[in-house]
Design a protein that fits this description.
The chain is of the alpha/beta class. It folds into 3 domains: 184 residues, TPP-binding domain (Rossmann fold, 3-Layer(aba) Sandwich); 44 residues, Rubrerythrin, domain 2 (Single Sheet); 51 residues, no CATH class. 26% of the residues lie in helices and 15% in strands. It has 7 helices and 12 strands. The strands form 3 sheets. A 6-stranded parallel β-sheet has the order 3-2-1-8-9-10, with helices on one face. Helix 2 packs parallel to helix 5. The chain is elongated. The termini are far apart. Belongs to the sirtuin family.
Length: 299
């Protein structure tokens, strides 16, 4: 790593498992549990905090040992660990970021932008751009969808081709075309090197120069120790506190868009107003259950 001129870190869901966010293909991953008829358990991304590996990567970027980060994670933990936004590409989007469909202005939120999306594939968040008034959409990339931002592929390809050391961590290397970017470094003259850290086997195990079966936190701890970097600061403040909060106006607009009427009941649950109709329906069901219970008892 010290000899590399352009080391790029490629990270996947495995780097966030120690933050109690489930990965996809691990023993307790989302797809693994779904195939077994179960449900993966873990924290919501908004409750999670950056891991040791996140902070270690940020420190290596700060020291110039890692030049760029490419991730398929949408949990915002890299940025929350202090990594500058211009030194990372989040190929599958960011739950805290929404973008104007007209002018492209980015809006960073302290809450999960997808919480007000009515149709997943439409991505519209029921909010509007502060600059031009255009519609805002979340940046999350779902299966079979193209990348949400035009520069994602160009920057990913640029840094992958420039890379002479690819540090790949916490990814099954099964998602395409994301998995093809690290091997771009092998096409250089002389070819670069690939280091792959993941607990499960991957289709690229026979291609890489070094294969490590380890948790990313454990690997990064040993790497930092080998580099003589054992004491470094981690971000204590949550950067999301500096970003926009959900406003009453935002909620009013969401309510009108979702239900076609103005919001009268201001009670909220999980940042989304609960429709009065739900309260009425619940009351009616409760009344019916009482009547049926009395009838059955007297029968």
């Amino acid at each position: 790593m010290k000899e590399a001129k352009h080391c790029v870190a490629f990270t996947g869901a495995g780097i966030s498992t120690s933050a109690n966010i489930p990965d996809f293909r691990g023993p307790r991953g989302v797809w693994t549990q779904r195939e077994r008829g179960g449900v993966s358990k873990g924290k919501n991304v908004m409750e999670a905090v950056p891991t040791f590996a996140h902070y270690a990567i940020t420190e290596l970027v700060k020291r110039g040992l890692i030049k760029f980060v490419i991730t398929t994670n949408m949990d915002c933990l890299h940025i929350r660990s202090g990594l500058p936004r211009h030194l990372i590409i989040e190929q599958h989007g960011n739950v805290n970021k929404e973008v104007c469909v007209n002018c492209g202005t980015q809006h960073w939120r302290s809450y999960e932008t997808t919480s007000t999306v009515l149709k997943t594939r439409d991505h519209y968040t029921c909010r509007y751009c502060n600059w031009c008034g255009g519609k805002l959409r979340d940046t999350i990339v779902h299966f079979s969808e193209n990348w949400s931002e035009e520069h994602t592929e160009a920057l990913s390809l640029h840094h992958s081709r420039k890379c002479d050391l690819a540090l790949i961590m916490g990814t099954s290397m099964n998602v395409q075309p994301n998995a093809t970017f690290p091997e771009e470094c092998l096409k250089k003259t002389p070819p670069g090197k690939m280091v792959l850290v993941n607990l499960q086997k991957t289709p690229y195990d026979h291609v890489v120069n070094m294969r490590v079966f380890s948790k990313t936190d454990n690997f990064m701890f040993l790497l930092m120790k080998e580099l003589g970097i054992e004491n470094f600061e981690s971000v204590q403040e949550d950067i999301r506190d500096q970003w926009d909060k959900m406003t009453e106006q935002d909620m009013d607009r969401y309510y009108e868009t979702a239900y076609g009427v103005k919001r009268k009941n201001k009670k909220k649950r999980n940042n989304i107003a609960i429709p009065t109709s739900l309260y009425l329906a619940a009351s009616l069901l409760l009344s019916l259950s009482v009547v049926v219970g009395v009838w059955y008892k007297n029968k």
